[in-house]
Amino acid sequence: MNFTSSFLLIALACACAFSSSLAYPYPDPREIVNLQPEPLAYSPNFDVVPLHRVRRQFQLNGGGGGSPKQGFDLNLNARAPVWQSHNGRHSFDATGSYGQHLGGPYGNSRPQFGAGGVYTFRF
C-alpha cells in the first residue's frame, strides 16, 4: 500500500511538471541574457516615412434592382481623393451620387444628383 501511494505521488508530480512545460513553452525572460543589443530598426540619419500612410484611389459603386412591372432603380456613387497631408493623417475626398427610377406604371423619375466632400482625420 505504501509503495503504490508513493508511486502515484511521483506519477502525479511528473504529470504536473509535464503539463506546466506544455502550458509555458517559452523560457523565463529573467533567465535570458543578451550581451549584444539588437540593431535599431531605423537610422536617425535617414528621413522617417510614416507607416500609416494609405494609398487612396478613386472608388465607383453602383447598384440597382426592380422588376419590369414596377420599374427599376439605378444608383451610382463615386468618391475621389482630392488632398492628403504629408504624414497621411488628414485627407479630403470629393463625392458624387446619381439616382433614378426607370420604367414602371409611373414612368421615369427625374434624376437625383448629389455632391459633397469627406474630411478624414486618422488618430
Can you characterise this structure?
- The protein has about 120 residues and is of the alpha+beta class.
- The chain has a domain of about 60 residues.
- Helix content is about 20%, strand content about 35%.
- It has one helix and four strands; from the N terminus they run αββββ.
- The chain has a four-stranded antiparallel sheet, with no helix packed on it.
- A hairpin with a 5-residue loop joins strand 2 and strand 3.
- It is elongated.
- It starts with a helix and ends with a strand.
- About 0% of the residues are buried.
- The model has no long low-confidence stretch (mean pLDDT about 75).
- This is Diptericin A.
- Keywords: Antibiotic, Antimicrobial, Immunity, Innate immunity, Secreted, Signal.
- It holds the Pfam family Attacin_C.
- It comes from Drosophila suzukii.
Could you provide a short overview of the structure?
The chain has 123 residues and is α+β, with helices and mostly antiparallel strands. The protein is built from one helix and four strands. It has a domain at 57-121.
Give the SSE map:
Layout: H1 2-23, E1 59-67, E2 71-84, E3 90-102, E4 112-121
Signal peptide: 1-23
Domain Attacin C-terminal: 70-118
Organism: Drosophila suzukii
Q: Can you tag this structure with a few keywords?
A:
single chain, 123 residues, alpha+beta, four-stranded antiparallel β-sheet, elongated, antimicrobial, signal, Diptericin A
How far is the N terminus from the C terminus? 69 Å
The mean pLDDT is 76
Order of helices and strands: HEEEE
- Give me the Rg, rounded: 33 Å
